C-alpha cells in the first residue's frame, strides 16, 4: 500500500444473478458487520491483554461485543464465552458435563461412566463427539428419536431415557433441515424438577444444553425463558463472522465449565488464546442487528417462506409437492421450507444440478458428501426413503424477495422438465 493510500472498504462478492436460498447453511456478512470487522482490523489491532492504549481499544471492543450478545439472549455479559464456533462450544459442553460427573462422585460411588441424552437429529458436533466417547468407553449416550407425528424429540421420551448416571441433556432449539422448533423450555422445567428429586437421592445433577444456531436471528431466544444451563451461538447463521460463543449460566459457580485448552488465561481461563478481536467485534455487531430488528426479520422471512410454499403448490400442483417440514401442532423456523417434488428420477441433488440460477441444498451442508442417500433426519421423522431422497431445503433470508422466489420456482420447473425429458428419450 503506497504512502497516503486509504485502505479499501470491505466488499461482498455478488452472486452474479444467482438466487441464494441456503441461509440455514451460512449467511453472508451484513454490511454493518463487515464494516465492524474491518474497523477492528485497522483500529483495534492491539493485544487485548496489553495494558497500553492499543490493547485497551481491543479489550473495549470485546467487552462491547459481549454485552451485545448477552442482551440478545436476555443474559449477562459475564455469562458469555467466545469460541471458534459452534463445534467448539458444543464439544466444550460435553467435555464439561463428563468432567463434572467425575468430579462430583464420592468415594465408593459405583455409578460407572457418564451418560448423556440427546436427540437423533442433532448436528454432527453433538452426535460425533458422543459416538467417539462411546467407542473409547468414556461415556455412553442415548439418541432419542423424534416423533413422526410432531417432528420433535418429545419431552416424555427424553425424560424416559434418563438414567441414574445421566449428567447432560442436549437438545437443539430448532432443526436445521425441517425447521421444527424443539420443546426446550418445557424440557428444562421438567429436568429442574427432576434434579430436586435426584439431589435427595444423591444422584448427579443433570445439566441442560441447547444448540441455538438456527434460531438466533429468526425468532426470540431468551435464556431466562428457556431455562438452560448452556446455549450455543454460531455467528455465520445470523450474518456474522464464522466464530461463535457459549452462554453459561454463571460459569464456574452456578454452572460448571471446564476448559479444553490451557494457555494465557484469556476468557477467564475457560477458553484461553489471544482473542480474535475483529471477528468478535463482527459477532457483536451481528447481535446488535438482531437486538434491533429480529421481529422485522422474522415477519419478512415468514411472509416470503409462505409465498414460496404457495408458489410451489401452484406451479407443480398439490399432488406433486410433499412438504417435509409440516407437522401438525409443531412450530417451525420462519424461513425454512423442506419439500420433495414427487416422481421417479427427481432426487434432490439431480434437480439442483439442473438448476441454472437457484443455489440451495438437499439438507445439512455438513452431510453434502452423502450423495443421493436420503437424509437421516427426514427418515427419523417418518418420511419414506422414496420421498426423502427427492428432498430439497430452501431457506430464505432477510433480503429474499418474492420476485426471487418466482425466479427460483421457475428454475425448478425447467430443471424438472429437463430431467423428465431426458428420462423419456
Q: Can you offer a commentary on this structure?
A:
About 40% of the residues lie in helices and about 10% in strands. The protein is α/β, with parallel strands linked by helices and about 425 residues long. The protein has a seven-stranded mixed β-sheet, with helices on both faces. A three-stranded antiparallel β-sheet has the order 9-10-12. The protein has a two-stranded parallel sheet with strand order 1-11. α7 links the parallel β6 and β7. α1 packs antiparallel against α8, α3 crosses α4 and α8 packs across α12. The radius of gyration is 23 Å and the shape is globular. The N terminus is likely disordered.
Amino acid at each position: 500500500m503506497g504512502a497516503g493510500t486509504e485502505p479499501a472498504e470491505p466488499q461482498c462478492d455478488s452472486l452474479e444473478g444467482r438466487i441464494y436460498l441456503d441461509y440455514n447453511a451460512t449467511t453472508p456478512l451484513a454490511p454493518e458487520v463487515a464494516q465492524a470487522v474491518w474497523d477492528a482490523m485497522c483500529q483495534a489491532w492491539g493485544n487485548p491483554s496489553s495494558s497500553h492504549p492499543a490493547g485497551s481499544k481491543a479489550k473495549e471492543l470485546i467487552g462491547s461485543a459481549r454485552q451485545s450478545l448477552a442482551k440478545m439472549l436476555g443474559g449477562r455479559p459475564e455469562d458469555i464465552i467466545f469460541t471458534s464456533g459452534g463445534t467448539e462450544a458444543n464439544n466444550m459442553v460435553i467435555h464439561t458435563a463428563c468432567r463434572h460427573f467425575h468430579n462430583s462422585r464420592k468415594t465408593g460411588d459405583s455409578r460407572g461412566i457418564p451418560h448423556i441424552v440427546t436427540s437423533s437429529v442433532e448436528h454432527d458436533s453433538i452426535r460425533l463427539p458422543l459416538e467417539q466417547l462411546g467407542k473409547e468407553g468414556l461415556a455412553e449416550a442415548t439418541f432419542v428419536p423424534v416423533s413422526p407425528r410432531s417432528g420433535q424429540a418429545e419431552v416424555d421420551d427424553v425424560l424416559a431415557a434418563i438414567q441414574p448416571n445421566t449428567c447432560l441433556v442436549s437438545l437443539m432449539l430448532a432443526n436445521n433441515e425441517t425447521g421444527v422448533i424443539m420443546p426446550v423450555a418445557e424440557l428444562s422445567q421438567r429436568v429442574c424438577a427432576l434434579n430436586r428429586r435426584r439431589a435427595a437421592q444423591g444422584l448427579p445433577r443433570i445439566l441442560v444444553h441447547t444448540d441455538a444456531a438456527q434460531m438466533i436471528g429468526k425468532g426470540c431466544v431468551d435464556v431466562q425463558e428457556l431455562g438452560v444451563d448452556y446455549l450455543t451461538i454460531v455467528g455465520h447463521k445470523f450474518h456474522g463472522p464464522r466464530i461463535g460463543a457459549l452462554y453459561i449460566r454463571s460459569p464456574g459457580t452456578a454452572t460448571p465449565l471446564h476448559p479444553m485448552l490451557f494457555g494465557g488465561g484469556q476468557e477467564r481461563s475457560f477458553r484461553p488464546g489471544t482473542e480474535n478481536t475483529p471477528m468478535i467485534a463482527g459477532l457483536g455487531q451481528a447481535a446488535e442487528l438482531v437486538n434491533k430488528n429480529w421481529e422485522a426479520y422474522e415477519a419478512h422471512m415468514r411472509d416470503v417462506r409462505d409465498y414460496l410454499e404457495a408458489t410451489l403448490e401452484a406451479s407443480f400442483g398439490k399432488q406433486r409437492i410433499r412438504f417435509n417440514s409440516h407437522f401438525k401442532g409443531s412450530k417451525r423456523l420462519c424461513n425454512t421450507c423442506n419439500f420433495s417434488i414427487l416422481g421417479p428420477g427427481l432426487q434432490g441433488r439431480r434437480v439442483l444440478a439442473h438448476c441454472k440460477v437457484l443455489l440451495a441444498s438437499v439438507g445439512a451442508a455438513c452431510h453434502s458428501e452423502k450423495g443421493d442417500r436420503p437424509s437421516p433426519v427426514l427418515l427419523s421423522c417418518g418420511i419414506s426413503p422414496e420421498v426423502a431422497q427427492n428432498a430439497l431445503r430452501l431457506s430464505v433470508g432477510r433480503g429474499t424477495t418474492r420476485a426471487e422466489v418466482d425466479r427460483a420456482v421457475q428454475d425448478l420447473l425447467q430443471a424438472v422438465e429437463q430431467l423428465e425429458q431426458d428420462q423419456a428419450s
